[in-house]
Amino acid sequence: MPVKDTTAMIAGMEPVLQDGTWVYCAVPDGADTTAAFAMIREAEGVTLILPIAVARAAGHDVSVPMRRITLNVFSDLEGIGLTAAVATALAGAGISCNVIAAYHHDHVFVGAADAERAVAVLQKLQRTASKP
Hints:
Layout: H1 6-11, E1 15-17, E2 22-27, E3 38-42, E4 45-51, H2 52-57, E5 66-71, H3 82-92, E6 97-101, E7 106-111, H4 115-130
Antiparallel strand pairs: 1-5, 2-4, 3-4, 5-7, 6-7
Helix pairs in contact: 3-4
């Protein structure tokens, strides 16, 4: 059942650092999307989030490696505040993030060098929201 309450979403987010390293790549329309975690079509073109090895093999820029943190709460698509809370907590720790909301979970991409620290920041945020 999707969670819509802001505090409940944060308290239940259970951030998990996923295996693998990813990069955002601008590709031409019609590019192979098979290995992509996500594809976003914008007016300026198509963005794929690819495993770094796939991106490197295709000749894409891999200078900004990222790791993916999955927030395991089943957040309601109309829920308010989860993304803001996550971004604010990470910004407060000097960590940039890119959040992608999917149907079941939100996925937070952070610089590979900051990944472990980002998980710790999000776990602290979760514990704070869990306190009565």
